[in-house]
């Protein structure tokens, strides 16, 4: 069991989870910033770069050695689904912003355009829930649950602190769509933090075992 956990607690930055979380969390605001300040051509280049990074991460995860060390069939499906939902969210946000700047339509179509990014965002939640149901490895399921809680905790802390400061006019207003990118950043950071904690714990256990053997 110790070897099993040690293999799976290896640096999670060599797996898609943290990378995809940071790609969504940082890439979405960056894409909108580039679009608003530079233009749509630069935004398309940024989107293409994000797609290239995501493809590279997923290609690395497809390596047989990496899959054996970190993966499970459910985890592989989760990463593919989450990647698709992530790009659906980014593209939806980009498209909605472009339509808005070109001239927002009136009536029900305006609501459809405004809510365009929400469907992929809801898909991310569904993908996470489905993974927790499909995953048969209790260790991987536990780690994913803790990472999601860390992401949620980051959203609650940022929302509460910023909301109070905004209420009293101390900071600028921030649109609520930041929730999804912030959660994704927390999800990625949570996986990395858990990996480091597990590695430290495994290293301490190994040192203790070596000490016991030396005394014996």
Describe the structure.
It is a single chain. Helix content is 83%, strand content 0%. The relative contact order is 0.15. It is mainly α. Helix 2 packs antiparallel against helix 3 and helix 5 packs antiparallel against helix 7. The two termini are 23 Å apart. The protein has one domain.
Task: Show the helix and strand layout.
Elements: H1 2-8, H2 16-37, H3 40-61, H4 64-70, H5 73-103, H6 108-114, H7 118-134, H8 138-167, H9 179-215
Helix pairs in contact: 2-3, 2-5, 2-9, 3-5, 5-7, 8-9
- Described by the principal axes of the CA atoms, the overall outline is globular
Measured on Cα atoms, how large is the radius of gyration? 20 Å
Distance between the termini: 23 Å
Fraction of residues in β-strands: under 5%
Averaged pLDDT, please?
A: 78
Sheet having the most strands: none
Task: Give the SSE string.
Answer: HHHHHHHHH
Q: What structural class do you assign from the helix and strand content?
A: mainly alpha
Low-pLDDT runs of 5+ residues are 1-10
Helix content: over 70%
Number of strands: 0
- Total domain modules: 1
Number of contiguous helices: 9
